[in-house]
Write a structure and sequence with these properties.
- The protein is an alpha/beta fold.
- The chain is 28% helix and 28% strand.
- Strands 1, 3, 4, 5, 6, 9, 10, 12 and 14 form a 9-stranded mixed β-sheet that branches. It has a 4-stranded mixed β-sheet with strand order 15-16-17-19, with helices on one face.
- The longest helix has 20 residues.
- The chain is globular.
- The two termini are 33 Å apart.
Length: 435
């Protein structure tokens, strides 16, 4: 079926993916206790968009991310829908109170819950299948809201470095992109929204989706029958701001405080929907997938040997891994495959998906530089097989967790080289056909 330039075939699907109590939770290396209860169920959603020539499926889940399960899930979805894997986007909200599903978590928590992981992959696949099978004529409209629940967690220490503290003067992105799905008659069917902020308001042993789940609840309560779902932005160095604006450190929020900030985000989405200012999204769908290599700095053997005596266990493990690799002539990886997907709806809207924990300035730069060529830009991080943190060039000399310590967790040779940011952004422009 061929659609008109302002009408697409769109379907949505949803599944509960709440894991069993007792499963280990992902995201905080220091948390070694299993989960003890559920403070909010977790869900997965999917949307299928088809212009009659180029289909697209986006699946989101309230998990840390899909990581090494990406190709398996894409393969399952493709087998049931016929949509090629390159046209399937998988997005994790990055809640730190969701299930461990990554192989790298075994050394922290022991065996993973393989039965749950299989159910999770099946649930996401069913979401996508439902979305594909329920496609019907619909229109898309796009708008931007504002919400200030995020703050940078990289505060200058006054010596050229950074501290893990609220940095209200550091870059942030308070835009709330909103993509509304409406019937041809204008009835709201679904709403997709994004924001750039780590869902790490609390650690603990309770299962839940952080501020994201309460934003869902608010939007769906204000629009009964409408499916809402969330796609995480460039949140690598962003965290929910302290309850007390004068507080100079991050303090764990209680459940009510998480609900409060989720409602603030949800209300910003509701305001956009009520504003009457959403722009019609029109034009043919064009999807492209590219994989580039991100280079890390070479091994500094003096640093590696010093790491063997470090107080932190993860640094010792990093040093032992690299030293053993060198002494045994084992391959040492210095080039990391990094996936970029882009989706264009003519000149009306560009979606950019990046397979990393991108710091916020990536999103700000892409929107600034692409905005002169495309009417609207939506930048999504935490998609597909996430490679970990990817800072911008400006941040590399500052060091800090996002630049270096996180690379040691991944047992990499060093920080990413200074040219990494420019390579990624040039690849995005090529993918979109923008010089």
């Amino acid at each position: 079926m061929t659609t008109s330039s302002d009408t697409y075939l769109i379907g949505v699907g949803g599944e509960d993916i709440t894991p069993p109590v007792g499963i280990y939770l992902a995201g905080f290396a220091a948390r070694t206790e299993p989960s003890t209860a559920v403070y909010h169920p977790l869900k997965a959603n999917a949307i299928a968009i088809d212009d009659g020539n180029e289909p697209l499926i986006i699946a989101s889940a309230e998990i840390l991310g899909f990581y090494e399960h990406t190709e398996e899930v894409r393969s399952r979805i493709s087998a049931l829908t016929g949509v090629v894997p390159a046209n399937i986007v998988l997005s994790g909200s990055h809640t730190h109170c969701g299930p461990c599903i990554r192989e790298m978590d075994r050394h922290r928590h022991g065996d993973l819950d393989e039965d749950y992981i299989e159910r999770l992959l099946d649930s996401v696949t069913r979401c996508a299948k439902t979305a594909w099978e329920t496609r019907s004529p619909a229109r898309l409209r796009f708008g931007n809201g504002h919400c200030d629940i995020a703050v940078s967690r990289r505060k200058s220490d006054g010596k050229g470095g950074v501290e893990w503290k609220p940095g209200p003067g550091a870059p942030h992105d308070h835009e709330v992109p909103v993509l509304a799905v409406e019937s041809p008659e204008g009835e709201l069917r679904s709403v997709i929204f994004s924001y750039a902020c780590h869902p790490t308001s609390r650690s603990g042993t309770l299962i839940g989706g952080d501020y994201v789940c309460y934003a869902y609840d608010h939007v769906e309560a204000m629009h009964p029958g409408v499916t809402a779902f969330f796609l995480q932005g460039c949140a690598g160095d962003q965290k929910t701001r302290p309850v007390d604006p004068a507080e100079d450190r991050f303090i764990q929020r209680n459940i009510q405080e998480i609900r409060d900030i989720g409602v603030l985000l949800g209300e910003s989405v509701v305001r956009v929907l009520a504003s009457g200012g959403l722009e019609q999204v029109t034009g043919p769908v064009s999807v492209r997938q590219d994989v580039i290599g991100l280079d890390t700095e070479p091994i500094d053997m003096d640093l590696v040997r010093a790491g063997l005596k470090a107080d932190q266990g993860y640094i010792q493990a990093w040093a032992r891994h690299l030293l053993d690799s060198v002494e045994n002539n084992a391959p040492v990886v210095t080039n990391i495959p990094f996936e970029i997907q882009t989706v264009r709806f003519g000149n009306a809207l560009a979606l950019v998906t990046l397979a990393g924990e991108m710091t916020v300035e990536h999103g700000l730069r892409l929107k600034r530089e692409l905005g002169s060529r495309v009417d609207n830009v939506m930048v999504l991080a935490y998609t597909n097989d996430i490679v970990g943190y990817v800072p911008v060039r400006r941040q590399i000399p500052e060091g800090g967790y996002e630049v270096w310590a996180s690379q040691q967790y991944w047992k990499r040779t060093g920080p990413y080289v200074a040219e990494t940011e420019d390579r990624i952004h040039a690849a995005v422009r090529r993918s979109l056909g923008i010089s």
